[in-house]
């Protein structure tokens, strides 16, 4: 009853089109969808065949065959015409949604039940409720603009109703606050590992990047965008700083700790950017090192969390910490309010002198650069 056809696109990518044909009482209908993986096409085919064999299955398949643009069409147009740059994570999620059955449905045929079924499929596939919530949140953006902007019959009220059901049924859940902080022993191991590899010319200076991330509290993608022109005494211009409602053009000046400035100025001027490396390369290197050194559950982003925690432990107020971290909402920093002013545990850290060698430490470098 169903077939899978393999097809090669112009760019060389291979896709798999699954098609099902159904006949009942002399009536015919069909449905098809294209996937990047054969396994996904086979799974779709099994679902469709099971659906068609149920009572009323023919009418359901026929309904989904209605004319009109599909959700996949709406996703494609959203990506193509959005004036704001779509973040890497959001783009990946939207591309993943297109491989599910819901993407093949006509916009006018999608009901809250379809959205809930899609979310349940994600959950059954091993994704956590927090991840499912992330997927449906990005999908909701399509529902919000497709009708008013392009006249596509996606009903936002159906998405809203689906959200209520998913929350109450536990299909989606709020993300939990991650509180992992690296220990000094763990960072000592990482720094030694990265320094040894760089000394032998086998990698980028990850020890410099790790130290800068810790003392600057900057995110990975922000670090890779900083240019020498963005660096001034005591502060740095962070381009396209992450913000929930603004992906590009959000350039913000933030304070730079003396340690972070010293590390940045210790980098060789080989490029317009201070850290001319890709985020993918940094992530891969950090992940491999943690695995090799048997450091469990440590992410690069945890360095930012450690850096912000350090500021509060040094006795900084929320406004003072925000001037470094770049948080626009001070409420986001309330999670650190339980930290007591116990001092700077990273003061005198031997690795700081190694990544930013000076006659008197990072503070001297900052003062010298300010006088230039």
UniProtKB/TrEMBL annotation:
<dbReference type="InterPro" id="IPR013762">
    <property type="entry name" value="Integrase-like_cat_sf"/>
</dbReference>
<dbReference type="InterPro" id="IPR002104">
    <property type="entry name" value="Integrase_catalytic"/>
</dbReference>
<dbReference type="Pfam" id="PF00589">
    <property type="entry name" value="Phage_integrase"/>
</dbReference>
<dbReference type="InterPro" id="IPR011010">
    <property type="entry name" value="DNA_brk_join_enz"/>
</dbReference>
<keyword id="KW-0238">DNA-binding</keyword>
<dbReference type="GO" id="GO:0006310">
    <property type="term" value="P:DNA recombination"/>
</dbReference>
<dbReference type="InterPro" id="IPR050090">
    <property type="entry name" value="Tyrosine_recombinase_XerCD"/>
</dbReference>
<keyword id="KW-0229">DNA integration</keyword>
<dbReference type="GO" id="GO:0003677">
    <property type="term" value="F:DNA binding"/>
</dbReference>
<feature type="domain" description="Tyr recombinase">
    <location>
        <begin position="177"/>
        <end position="350"/>
    </location>
</feature>
<dbReference type="GO" id="GO:0015074">
    <property type="term" value="P:DNA integration"/>
</dbReference>
<comment type="similarity">
    <text>Belongs to the 'phage' integrase family.</text>
</comment>
<keyword id="KW-0233">DNA recombination</keyword>
<protein>
    <submittedName>
        <fullName>Phage integrase family protein</fullName>
    </submittedName>
</protein>
